[in-house]
Amino acid sequence: MVNRSPIPVVDMPLKIVVLLSGEGTLLQSFINRQQSGLPIEIVAVISNRPNVGGLARAQKAEIPAHEIDHKLFPDRPTFEAALIKLIDFYKPDLIVLAGFMRILGEQFVDHYQGKLINIHPALLPKYKGLDTHRRAIEAGDTEHGSSVHLVTSELDGGPVIAQIKLPILPGDTAETLTERTKQKEHLLYPEVLRWIAEKRLVLATGTPCCDGAPLKSPVILEPDSEG
Ligand code: GAR
User: Which residue in 120, 144, 149, 186 is the catalytic one?
Assistant: First the structure.
């Protein structure tokens, strides 16, 4: 558990670039929390899909919004080279994948080692890949959740930093569970950004360290530590 007191002083907000592919409700949770004092600065939002809701949310909040449509590139390395060039222009402290639905190759992951995090809607190591909500329901699980992890070249396989859990209710469908999981993610992901901004969570070595010690197991966000 991350102990939140005493409250550390943050001299400079954490500069983040957000990568997304869709609706952008996670991005909205960052914007909302930033407005109420979360020490982050969203320096750019980049989507690999044109005209998505996440780009509109960025524009509304006056954040530079870019689309780099992967379909316009001949192959993954060329697409990722363009992405790296754009991200590096903003000199972020951290690259935050928030519903970015494109597998990233070794070239990209190595370039941002210790600076690249993702949220995956499952209690990793369960249900890597797609369709996590449906798979959890079909397996008869009683519990679901979401995980924030460091990105490595193994898909959804990097060290897990933090998780949030929720019950699977009788009658839940993939849609209802997706929606309820997102509500939880909107609490979890900004909180992880806070820990990084406050330098309580350090990722630079590739092994997450929390309050000075290597993280042995994921932090479980409890309701009383939200907010
Ligand atoms: C979130 O639920 C996130 O966990 C998931 O995409 C959704 C994005 O929602 N990410 C993945 O599935 C990555 N494998 P949003 O576009 O409303 O922020």
Answer: 120
Distance between Cα 87 and ligand 1 center (Å): 20
pLDDT at 226 (0 to 100): 42
For a mutational test of ligand 1's pocket, the pick from 47, 119, 133, 181, i.e. the residue with the most ligand atoms closer than 8 A to its C-beta, is: 119
Write out pLDDT tens, residues 129-173: 999 999 999 999 999 999 999 999 899 999 999 999 999 999 999
Q: Which atom of ligand 1 is nearest to the CA of 181?
A: 2
Whether 120 is a known active-site residue: answer: yes
Per-residue pLDDT, 9: 67
Q: Is 151 helix (H, G, I), strand (E, B) or coil?
A: coil
Q: pLDDT grade, residue 68 (50/70/90)?
A: very high
CA distances for 65 relative to 30, 133, 164, angstroms? 15, 29, 29
**Burial (Cβ within 10 Å: 0-12, 13-18, ≥19) of residue 127:** buried
Residue ranges covered by each domain of the chain = 14-220
User: Domain 14-220 is in which class?
Assistant: alpha beta
